[in-house]
Amino acid sequence: MIVDRQGRRFRNLRVSLTAACNYACTYCVPDGKRLVAAQDELSGEDLARGVAYLIEAAGIERLRITGGEPLISPRLEGFLTAIAGLDLHDISLTTNGQLLSRRLPLLQAAGVRRLNVSLDTLDAAAFRSIARGGDLATVLLGMQEASAAGMRIKVNMVPMRGQNLDQVAPLLDYCLARGYELRFIELMRMGHLARDGNAFRQQLVSMPELLTLIGQHHAFEQASAAVDATALRYQIPGKGYFGVIANESVPFCRACSRLRLSSTGWLHGCLSSSNRHYIGDLLDRPRHQALPALQRLLVKALADKQELAFAGGVMVMKVIGG
Ligand code: SAM
Fold first, then answer.
1. How far is the CA of 223 from the centre of ligand 1 (A)?
2. What is the CATH code of the structural domain delimited by 12-320?
3. Atom of ligand 1 nearest to the CA of 120
4. How far apart, in whole angstroms, are the C-alpha atoms of residue 98 and residue 134?
5. 287 CA to middle of ligand 1, Å?
6. How many Cβ atoms from other residues are within 10 Å of residue 296's Cβ?
């Protein structure tokens, strides 16, 4: 097991199936271009071999499939088939929900039971101006069908001043009424927002402000969360839970156990670091050759983690795997 001075190790792996996305969210894709994949993306089978090797070399326990938008990827089925027999405690998926209805049978058959659906607003016009793609009603229907099929749903919302702050209370009520857990993600200094501090500061809604706003609608209390959870969790008695991922206000670097594998075969130990480590060439090697080389790269990837706080990074979420 590879452990650093702070006792951190990699436990949770995020695999990006593709950098392409059918949205172009303003905070993620600055040029507004949709469906742009990275060159040289690996096959679903190669990425699955990467997962298998990382389970052995790093002690990965939980897998989250992400992107880009994983549900548009032609690699999804091959990847899900290839990871079917792996020793994982949990397989979940992050999606914008646009193709959820269509892909639900495939996800169910593969044993995916938990979904994070990104949804920043219930207002159709604001949805169009933030996501720059997709259709709100289709996402809501997809979540309803997934929930009815027994999937546990968390909704990810990035509150932004001037764009969707008026949606905090309505979206929270919508989620509470349906048993979805809403997670507010503080805007992160990624990509263009890492370069343009003013745009970042103008839009950032910090956790104290957010909690004050929620407190005007609901009484809530802190709830328990996993030791290496990135979200602070709150309970609204009798109604449900919500969470806040407070990268800026309450950094969680000290407990971070995440590792990311991009669709092109790069390992990222930290969102804040522009360091990355190529493992694509190890994936067609036999296990006894691949694992020692992988372990050397994992030591480097773990050393990339920030000591205390998220400082921001010029990499774009959809490329690393959000
Ligand atoms: N397409 C999928 C989706 O929409 O959930 C998965 C990829 S997306 C990059 C994953 C998450 O990253 C989304 O919840 C999105 O809101 C979040 N994200 C991207 N850029 C961000 C930023 N600068 N700050 C905060 N969250 C961001």
1. 24
2. 3.20.20.70
3. 16
4. 6
5. 33
6. 11
